[in-house]
Write a structure and sequence with these properties.
Elements lengths: L1 H7 L5 H15 L5 H5 L6 E2 L4 E2 L14 E2 L2 H13 L19 H25 L8 H14 L4 H8 L4 H20 L1
Helix pairs in contact: 2-4, 2-6, 6-8, 7-8
Length: about 190
């Protein structure tokens, strides 16, 4: 992530820089899903408490705990606030009047944005000479793996990521848990 972050500072194309901002926000906001990124509204952001409280699109429930905002996530939010583009949606990816309850329209918007972002991230991956292709979902997995390596409990990680059960988190990240145990024992 550090290598990608450093590379992102050299990007000249404005839209690619914005996509990288959104990618890093997903990472810094506890691996937020693309569907939750595009539907993130200013009313969900509490700058005073440094958190996001939002019903997740996939689960239709709030995460088990509010999403804490790191200083880097807040920096990105403040930058987008200064753009003054969309009075409702943080990243200006949906029209202010978009009906988020229209599941079909939301799915189509998410798929379109995801494809657009991933196409741009593919180019970034190549230009940054990354050993693998970066996608929006890479931010989510990178957050989770880093959290595991930093010693976050699986219970808390599961809550932050909005998984229905801790079993889902265990299945997805089992090999990283094993690596973490080996690293801590050696």
């Amino acid at each position: 992530m550090r290598r990608l972050y450093d590379y992102s500072k050299t990007i000249l194309r404005e839209r690619t820089r914005e996509i990288m901002d959104i990618f890093f926000f997903a990472y810094y906001a506890c691996g937020m899903r693309i569907s939750d990124i595009i539907t993130l509204e200013w009313k969900h952001v509490d700058f005073e408490k440094k958190q996001i409280v939002k019903k997740q699109v996939k689960t239709k429930q709030e995460a088990g705990v509010p999403t804490p905002l790191s200083p880097k996530a807040i920096e990105i939010l403040q930058r987008w606030l200064s753009y003054n583009r969309n009075p409702r949606f943080v990243f200006d990816l949906l029209d202010p009047g978009f009906d988020v309850s229209d599941e079909r329209a939301l799915m189509m918007a998410r798929n379109t944005k995801d494809k657009t972002f991933n196409k741009s991230l593919l180019t970034v991956s190549r230009n940054a000479k990354m050993p693998f292709t970066i996608t929006m979902h890479t931010a989510r997995h990178s957050f989770a793996v880093q959290a595991i390596h930093d010693g976050m409990s699986l219970h808390l990680l599961s809550k932050l990521m909005g998984h229905a059960t801790i079993i889902t988190t265990e299945k997805i990240y089992a090999r990283f848990l094993e690596e973490n145990v080996r690293d801590q024992i050696q």
